Please model this.
Amino acid sequence: MTTYKVRFLPQDVTVEVPEGTLLGEAARLAGIDVQMPCGGQGRCGRCAVIVKEGNVHRRPTQRLSPDDVAIGLALACQATVVEDVVVSIPPQEKIERKIREGKRAARVELPFPYDSHDQPLRKVAVTLDLPSLHDQTDDWSRLQRELARRYAMRDVEVSLTVLRKLGRVLRDGEWTVTVVLETDAWDRPNGPPRIIDVLPGERLENLWAAAIDIGTTSNVVWLVDLLGGRVMAQAVDYNGQIARGEDVISRIIYASKGDGLQDLQRLVIETLNRLLQQAADERNIPPEEIYKVVVAGNSTMLHLFAAISPEPIRLMPFITTVNQLPTFPAREIGLRVCPEATVDCLPGIASYVGADITAGVISSGMCNMAQELILFVDIGTNGEIVLGDCSWLISCACSAGPAFEGAGVVHGMRATAGAIEEVWVNAETYEATYRVIGGEKPRGICGSGLIGLLADMFITGVMDKSGNINLNLPTKRVRQGEHGPEYVVAWADESATGEDIVITGVDVDNLMRAKAAVYAGFSVLARSVGLTINDVGQVLIGGAFGQYINVEKAIQIGMLPDRPYDRFQFLGNTSVRGAYMALLAREMRHRVTEVGQMMTYLELSADNTFFDEFNAAMFLPHTDLDQFPSMKEFLEGAG
Model:
């Protein structure tokens, strides 16, 4: 096999790889992380590197012009090694979490009266009879004997991992030992007790567990003391998998290549272990004293978490490998908690409605609203919708979030420092004013800013109901750009990048498709059960992105139904809260399963009416203005 040397700059690292190896793979083998937000499909162009010496084989791509190639640019996810080369890697985009000044993690109130005695996880302390030459009983039998005598626990199960440390722990504790056990677990109600850990001495002061949300964009960890049931620390960061794909489809495609599946699992486990360590450090405990983990996330994220191939999720007829993972010990996936800690992944419904939604239905309280018709929407990287009153539930999913998180928008970006989060357009001068996260110079526009900008451009006449930008206005902010008509939000001398920040006609089209998909999903769900959007009593909005949506602006563009503002509730991250509730009580864990069993999934691609509803929603706010009476009144008044 022919091999070649690839030298990477500025790291000055050289690696030898077989002919035909992708530059991105060569970089990974060299210990260099090159971000591939489109999952290595060559769509985003953000993995561009510069070939300084030698040649590579470039696959055809629209992302590189002849001039780009002439100066040596190549896409790391597409270019392959055909000889010795020297490659320069530009600075990678920093992935930083949106943090508002002075904002701390919110205190989480107990969601219901909590009784730790109803908790399957428990600690007990026992003192064993001392061994002697006259009592040669082995350590394990001695512990079993005392657990049976003191707590009537018999047939106790123990792992080899625990047995390996038992002898040392007993002697370090001078024959007093704290035993961490799981009894009457929700999935083993009549099963024998299982020892999770043993600690020297009497250590009954805390009983630690964690609730986790594995979002496509963000990962969240809540550290919980099960003795009182309260959240004692919170940690959040971007999912490390973003470097391999910003949406689930990109990650599924990446996972199907080579060792992509193992790479994606490694990235999410590294992210979670970092967050678990951060939360544990806040309480001055080792993460190995976390004895149970409940996990929520969409179907793709849970498959990648468990290193199960998600490829069937994107292939007709869109079936998951598993909707309810069995519980397993943390050591099986390298999660840095107690090795024998139970990892319980909540159940999902279908390929695109996962455990984040079953958890969200429970934590949103929609099943406690006196049989009122509820619309629950989780708007994140994907858009999942549930309609019902909890005597029945129907759900669907639409690809909406990526556009509102910057994907497919020239100057779109995540909600990090430097993102324009709100925009206002003057109706007389067509000038733009904006607010930037962190108060610094803008680098791009995040989802909330895009929604506000789209709405203001429409109501001020910068663009028409079809999304066409009016180039005849008396302002320099509208112009013909490289990608067609565009509106300048921030001039180059105002921006951190030194270039104009604009929204193009292509951007507008992508955003309108996203908002149309969401509203069409509402309409199809309601129609499928003989109802309309006007029958909805409450609209509950979950998801990290959802809490930043301006309802007025979202209604103006036709993304949310035109209902009175007091009918909307913003709930934040309902996924991690649902995992927290399932962690606290067996009853709640059973209710999550019941919700999953009750919910009907509607695959929109198989519904003949979705295409019609989608096309009708591809106008601002909608083809049928009677569905948006407040906007109809405004537009008629303006006319």
In short: Residues 3-88 form a domain with the Ubiquitin-like (UB roll) fold (CATH 3.10.20.30).
